[in-house]
Amino acid sequence: MFDKQQAFKRQLDRSVDYAAVLDQIADHCSFSLSVEAIRHAMPLESVQAAAQELAFVQEGMEYVRIGKDLSMGGVSDIMPYVQSAQKSITLLPAELNSIALFLSAVNNVCHAFEEEREPRLFEYASVMDPCEKLRRQIEAMIDLSGNIKENATPALYGKIQGLRNAKADLSVFARNFTKKNSNRLMDTTTTSFQGRLCVLARTQDRNSFGGMIHGTSQSGMASYVEPREFVTWNNRIQTLEMEIEEEKRRICRELTALVSQHALALESDMETMTFLDTIMARAKWAYRKDGCIPKFQTRNHAFRFEQARHPLIDEQSVVPNDYACTKDQYCLMVSGPNMGGKTVTLKTIGLFVVLAHAGFPVIAHDAIMPWYDSMWFDIGDDQSIQNNLSTFSSHMSKIARICQVSGEHTFVLLDEIGNGTDPLEGASLATAILSHLIDRKSTIITSTHYDQVKEFGKSDPHTLVSSVEFDLETLKPTYKYLPGISQGSYAFAIAAQLHLDPGIIDNARTIKEENMKESQKALEHLELLQKQTLKKEEKFDALIQHAHQIQKEAEAEKQKWQKKKEQLEADYEQQLEAMLDEKREEARSILAKMKEHPDVKVHEQIESLHEINALGPEKKAEKEAKETFRKGDYVHIDSLNSHGEIVEIRKKQATVLTNGMKVNVKLNVLTKMKRPNVQKTAPKPTLERVTKRFPLELNIIGMRVEEGLNALDRYLDQAIVHKAISVRIIHGMGTGKLRKAVWDDLRKRNTVKSFESAGPSDGGLGATIVTFK
């Protein structure tokens, strides 16, 4: 079975450039396993399996379209490390770091998709186990460069610190030693020999230091000596280094055991990550090449590829074409001159069929096709010297096998059928083969030069004869596909272009016309008319395309100006906010002055508050008054949430008598209102004298609900005694519980006429203005 698959894969690679296209898709993969999975992809066994994978790719294309990118950074093939861990082979720090990086990527992918937007990818990714404990353990002990951290364990940290101290102590001791014995040394610097600190002594004095002699210099004038005093220090250092290495090995063994415990989860994660990476590679490839997800239908033989482009042809030069057959058309026959694009047409359709059956998108705007149980390809020259087969014999050997096994759900691609032998016999054989395959209801895509085969196609109801266009003026192919029209080889035109004697060409035309049947002449004329009609349709389509392009450009220009408008609005908002910040600073300064002078009278404080409220952008300050006001009008002061009578008007300012005080305000913060009906009572003490004894606001911020209500009860009683008209209760916003409790209490009091949230300059929702009856 494996050998058959490999042989079929080689046939696909040779026939429709399948391997080259897979390599192109694999370039979008993130790591080696997914690259291999793409390169070895084969048609799937069932339409359900292919449709399921294509559904995943569809979600991936939408994910890419909205600007998302599935991060697979750090993912590599960790399975060899996992298998080593299962065999109790201690992993190296760098290998353990690769596993940690892989698990970090798994964790990212687990949270990359949204259930509502990508349900299939979300479900597939969410079942992975990120092995949090294992990843954290590795990350705690091994850094990103693949080295064990110094503080991986307390024991390791202690030994490393001990090693540093020992080396530092030895370095200090060595400097003193070399100074003291400089007359017997070649140099006062120390050197290291095989990891042990030594001095470079004169050869004649090398035995005077005791200790060990490790070697002699090339000149023989100096020796590497480890003095007796150094031996203990060097031994200590080497012992610590060995203990450090042993502790590192122990850490690696411990982490390896953890990897082994999670081997099953890691293997499953690796498989899932590979699948997701292949899905996203297909999605990126299709999105960047403006491809689509092909659809399968099992009702009949109809297929359709709109604006199909071969992915290996340069995007700037490829010519998009529409290929289609109806439910009763089993055979698509393509004719045209050599090098005109017949083989590209065949390869494009064949490639799309294979890609779709393997669960891959295709480079078209829309694609629908039947599901085929088997596929056969005979394209290119398979001449075999080893088997002594000519080109014709090789083709016939394949076609004989195809004719034996083909059926209703077989896809057959035949290039230049009957070629390579006597033209009459070849054409007759090609006609018989096509007739046999059509009787078996196979789907056939073929090309031919033979007029006899084209005549058969035109007369057969199950065959669509088509061609690729050739420009007679330039004598170059246009690569446009023309359904329903067969074209000749243009041999006479090409011969004339190559300066063949005109007399010979005229004689050839005469011979051709004499040998042509009347039916052939009629068909040739009909095809000429069809071609002219197609040209008109193309011009019409081009005009529509141009109109669509203009519409798109207009929409793009509109979007551009909309974005510019939004940017200007954002800049204005930013400038406005900066101005407000500046004004707020001025307000804080005014408040600070008020606090510094607590003996300032109430009406002066209210005037200061009005001054704060007036702070703001000049645009707001300069707006026109809402209404026309006169002396004696009764008005509501928006900024102070108060009301009173206008006693004087000067330009854009009015003096309003409110609560027994005269307040200067701008006209644009006033609103006319009905004068309240107030019964005359005994003369009241002046507000200035009252407010000296009684404050007009109560601050209960920070109090518990019960404590705040007790304070409120006492305060309101005092307010009634002092005959206050209105007061302000400051409770703050917080959770809203204290504010709700205050309002509930106020609703129950028959002495309260009304209450409402304070204005923006008086605390907003964080304060309540209470008016008494």
What descriptive keywords fit this protein?
773 residues; alpha/beta; MutS, DNA mismatch repair protein, Chain A, domain 3; Rossmann fold; 6-stranded mixed beta sheet; 5-stranded antiparallel beta sheet; 17% strand
- How much helix, percentage-wise, in residues? 40-55%
Globally, the shape reads flat
The count of DSSP E runs of length 2 or more, i.e. the number of strands, is: 23
Low-confidence stretches: 383-388, 616-623, 680-692
CATH fold title of the largest domain: Rossmann fold
Number of helices: 23
- Average pLDDT works out at 83
Structurally, the number of domains stands at 5
Instruction: Assign the CATH architecture of the largest domain.
Output: 3-Layer(aba) Sandwich
The strand line-up of the biggest sheet is 10-11-12-8-13-14
Q: What gap, in angstroms, lies between the N and C termini?
A: 99 Å
Beta-strand fraction estimate: 15-25%
Q: Report Rg.
A: 46 Å
The CATH H-level superfamily of the largest domain is P-loop containing nucleotide triphosphate hydrolases
Main sheet overview? 6 strands, mixed
CATH class of the largest domain: Alpha Beta
User: What would you call the structural class?
Assistant: alpha/beta
